[in-house]
Specification:
Helices cover 56% and strands 0% of the residues. It is elongated and about 55 Å long. It is an all-alpha fold. Helix 1 crosses helix 11 (173-186) and helix 9 packs across helix 11. It binds a DNA duplex through residues 23-25, 37-38, 40-48, 79-86, 89, 116-122, 125, 137, 139-142, 157, 181, 184-185, 190-192.
DNA sequence: AACTCGGGGCA
DNA sequence: TGCCCAGAGTT
C-alpha cells in the first residue's frame, strides 16, 4: 500500500471516530478568533473561553481593544497562563492591525506571522477557522500523533506540516487537523496512549500491546 | 537548541 | 506534589 493510501485510510477512520471535530474556541469575528488563539497557547480552550466571554463583551473589536494599555490588558486576561506575555503581544498586535492593516485581520500566513504573539500554529488556525482557507496547523498533539501513525517522519512542526500537506488533498487539511488533535486528547496521549482501545491500532506502526510503554 | 513565561490538568 | 502542556520570542 502506498503512503497516500495509508494516509487516506487513517483519515477515513478518524472521520468516523470524530465526525464533529472542530475548533473549540468561542468567537464571532476573525479578530476575536485571532485574540482567542493567541490566548490559547499552553492553555485549555475552556479556560480561554471563560475569559474571552468577559473580554469580548466589553471589547469586541480591534478598535475597542486597542484602547487598553498593556497593564489594563493584563488585568483583563489574568487567569490564563503566560498572561503577561500575551497581554504585551495582544496590545502590540491591535496597534499593528490598525496601523498596517486598516483594522482587518490579514489573510496570509506571512502577514499573520508578522503580528506579535502569532506564530506558525496560530496563523494557520486563524486562516483555517476564521477564513476557511486550507491550512494545517501543527501543535504538539498533531506532531506526536502524525508521527506515531506514520503520516510524517520529521522532527519539527514545519517538516510535519510540509509532509502532511503534500500527502493529503487541501480540502482535508482543516478537518484532519482537528481530528488528530481530538484523537491525541482522547486516546493517543503523550505518555500512556490507550492503544488497547484505539480503532487505529491495526493500522498504526507505533501501536503497543497492553503493558508496553512508548519511548517518545 | 535551550530557556522562559504561568495557571490548569492529571497521575 | 510534580510534571507537562491545543506556543512564541529571545538568547
Amino acid at each position: 500500500m502506498s503512503l497516500s493510501q495509508h494516509a487516506q485510510q487513517i483519515c477515513d477512520i478518524l472521520a468516523t471516530l470524530y465526525p464533529q471535530a472542530h475548533c473549540e474556541l468561542e468567537f464571532s469575528t476573525p479578530f476575536q478568533l485571532l485574540i482567542a488563539t493567541i490566548l490559547s497557547a499552553q492553555s485549555t480552550d475552556a479556560q480561554v473561553n471563560k475569559l474571552t466571554r468577559r473580554l469580548f463583551a466589553k471589547y469586541p473589536t480591534v478598535e475597542a481593544m486597542a484602547e487598553l494599555s498593556v497593564e489594563e490588558l493584563e488585568e483583563q486576561i489574568k487567569g490564563v497562563g503566560l498572561f503577561r506575555n500575551k497581554a504585551k503581544h495582544i496590545a502590540a498586535t491591535c496597534q499593528l492591525l490598525l496601523s498596517e492593516y486598516g483594522g482587518e485581520v490579514p489573510k496570509t500566513r506571512e502577514e499573520l506571522m508578522q503580528l506579535p504573539g502569532v506564530g506558525r500554529k496560530t496563523a494557520n488556525v486563524v486562516l483555517a477557522n476564521a477564513f476557511g482557507i486550507p491550512a494545517f496547523a501543527v501543535d504538539t498533539h498533531v506532531l506526536r500523533v502524525s508521527k506515531r501513525l506514520g503520516l510524517a517522519q520529521g522532527s519539527t512542526p514545519d517538516q510535519v506540516e510540509a509532509e502532511i500537506t503534500a500527502l493529503l488533498p487541501a480540502g482535508q487539511w482543516i478537518d484532519a487537523h482537528h481530528r488528530l488533535i481530538w484523537h491525541g486528547r482522547r486516546i493517543c496521549h503523550a505518555r500512556n496512549p490507550r492503544c488497547g482501545e484505539c480503532p487505529l491500532a491495526p493500522h498504526c506502526p507505533s501501536a503497543k500491546t497492553e503493558g508496553e510503554e512508548h519511548d517518545e
